[in-house]
Write a structure and sequence with these properties.
Layout (H helix, E strand, L loop, with lengths): L1 H19 L1 H4 E9 L7 E3 L8 E10 L8 E2 L4 E5 L5 H7 L6 E10 L6 H4 L11 E8 L6 E5 L2 E8 L5 E5 L19 E3 L10 E3 L5 E5 L4 E6 L1 H9 L23 E2 L3 E4 L5 E6 L6 E6 L4 E5 L8 E3 L7 E6 L6 E6 L3 E6 L13 E4 L8 E6 L5 E4 L5 E4 L2 E6 L5 E4 L6 E5 L5 E5 L15 E5 L6 E6 L6 E7 L1 H4 L3 E8 L1 H4 L2 H18 L4
Parallel strand pairs: 3-5, 11-15
Antiparallel strand pairs: 1-35, 2-3, 2-5, 3-4, 3-6, 5-6, 6-7, 8-9, 9-10, 10-11, 12-13, 13-14, 14-16, 17-18, 18-19, 19-20, 21-22, 22-23, 23-24, 25-28, 26-27, 29-30, 30-31, 31-32, 33-34, 34-35
Length: 520
């Protein structure tokens, strides 16, 4: 008990230090309290813009039975699942209200607009005024994962604790109220093919309307929803809408139509934890699992592995991502506390090959946080007569051992990616920086660490239309006894822009301050 309270105190101290640095670390930040835990988050693009604001759409899935909910990406909306209830109600519900998918709009302040004092003043226990609920869908079961269809952002796929993948047209689905006894919304399609539960591994193809899934049956399953996508996207009705025409023909109007797989792929010896399509091909994809394997597949050559790396890590491999800007590079993340980067051109058919980079934290006890300081700038705050200020700063960089996490390549830069972990940190890495900084206590390639969450970060997503804006979500149940925290944030561009460019801007600003200073 003493050990746990000591750990909690350390986390609180770290959080307080991080919060004091928000004005210098971030260009924009919003904190949104979730009553229920969340397992995933995504952002969707939106076409509405303002002089100082841009609109994102969020979708999230709320789990009211002791599990998690999910946030996933759609084109300018954020996808997040939660029910906005009082914390005291949460402690007593235990399934008294249904699981939900909530679609919400989020106002994101444009770069270099937000005032520093504004973004640092927020209540951790409150909902953000920037996040506004748009629609609720009553989900059948827990929402473990959400993915959007790149060709049609209104179409999303969800994973729950079952063998099926559920497909939803979020625009056509009716708005529901999450009340006791509410009937479940009916998905627009059900993808079948798994023999056991498929809970987490889920991907949708950037090239064609294909869906990929992995599960406890050790298989990877591929579907095409090409025959249904036009009906889903163009219809104004849904099988879940009472009294309306169906958007898809089905023999039984009370049941959602089902789609059989294009292929079932076998090669793993344990649960498949994550899957990902090659960004340029619907026929090529990869998977990772609890057998510590990374497998590359090519549906054109059959259902056997094209390349199998037997020991990609020394522990279970939890996540995989394919570089959208350079399809030769693949990332894997594992319970062995490391992220590894692979070049598929160097992987032989017999599983030969080694990662080209290993990204690791320091060796420390699990969930133990140490502060490592790296001089990025010196601390100077100066006010001039015209009300301007110069802000150069010294950033304490926290890091800890990585247990179980997700990560994703940046949609804007081929060398940049982020990783989130059970240590409560979201790290942003640049593999081109590896080896360029000598005698540094910071892990190679790490150039930013988001420390705004006080418990494990279960998911995050880059904003493709505003590449340095990230939405992240944490499961805070263990630390606060509550639900979760959703954060939307954008780091200061002084951190990632070229050093000479930043120094030139600061010198110009310094000269401006000098010219504004009162003359004796």
């Amino acid at each position: 008990m003493k050990e746990r309270s000591g750990s909690r105190a350390a986390v609180d101290e770290r959080y307080a230090q991080w919060k004091s640095l928000i004005p210098v670390l971030y260009d924009w930040f919003a904190n949104h309290n979730l009553v229920w835990p969340s397992l995933s988050c995504r952002k969707m693009p939106c076409s509405l813009h303002h002089v100082t604001l841009q609109l994102m759409m969020l979708i999230s899935g709320c789990l009211l039975t002791g599990g998690g909910h999910s946030l996933r990406k759609l084109p300018t909306r954020i996808v997040s699942a939660c029910t906005y209830l009082n914390r005291q109600v949460h402690l007593q519900t235990d399934g008294s209200v249904p699981n939900t998918l909530v679609i919400a709009n989020c106002e994101v302040v444009k770069p270099r607009v937000a005032a520093a004092e504004h973004i640092s003043q927020f209540n951790e226990e409150a909902r953000s005024p920037f996040v506004k609920k748009y629609k609720t869908i009553v989900h059948p079961g827990e929402v473990n994962r959400i993915r959007e269809l790149p060709q049609n952002s209104k179409i999303i796929a969800t994973h729950t604790d079952s063998p099926d993948v559920l497909i939803w047209d979020v625009e056509a689905q009716p708005n529901r109220h999450a009340v006791l006894g509410a009937s479940e919304s009916r998905p627009d399609l059900i993808l079948t093919g798994h023999k056991e539960n498929a809970e987490f591994a889920l991907a949708m193809c950037p090239a064609e309307p294909y869906v990929l899934s992995g599960g406890k049956d050790k298989s990877v399953v591929l579907w095409s929803i090409q025959d249904h996508i036009s009906a889903l996207g163009d219809s104004s009705s849904s099988p879940g809408a009472s009294g309306s025409k169906q958007s898809i023909k089905t023999a039984n109007e009370k049941e959602s139509p089902k789609v059989d797989p294009r292929g079932i792929f076998h090669g793993h010896d344990s649960t498949v934890e994550d899957v990902q399509f090659c960004p340029s091909s619907a026929q090529e994809f990869c998977s990772v699992g609890d057998d510590a394997c990374l497998i590359l597949w090519d549906a054109r050559t059959g259902t056997a592995p094209a390349v199998k790396v037997e020991k990609a890590h020394s522990g279970d491999v939890h996540c995989v991502d394919w570089n959208p800007l350079d399809v030769n590079y693949i990332l894997t993340g594992s319970a062995d506390n490391s992220v590894r980067m692979w070049d598929r051109r160097n992987l032989g058919s017999g599983g030969a090959g080694s990662p080209i980079h290993k990204f690791e934290g320091h060796k420390a006890a699990v969930l133990c946080v140490q502060a490592c300081q790296d001089n990025i700038f010196a601390v100077i705050f100066s006010l001039c007569g015209c009300g301007c200020f110069l802000c150069c700063f010294f950033i304490p960089l926290f890091f800890a051992i990585i247990l179980s996490f997700g990560f994703q390549w940046s949609p804007d830069r081929a060398s940049v990616f982020g990783s989130s972990a059970e240590d409560g940190f979201l790290n942003v890495w640049d593999h081109e920086k590896v080896g360029k900084k000598k005698n540094s206590n910071v892990p190679a390639g790490l150039f930013f660490q988001h420390a705004g969450h006080r418990d494990k970060i279960v998911d995050f997503h880059w904003n493709s239309s505003d590449p340095w804006t990230i939405v992240s979500v944490s499961d805070d149940g263990e630390s606060t006894g509550g639900g979760g925290t959703l954060q939307i944030w954008r780091m200061s561009d002084l951190i990632y822009r070229p050093e000479d460019e930043v120094l030139a801007e600061l010198e110009n600003f310094k000269a401006h301050l000098a010219s504004c200073a009162p003359k004796n």
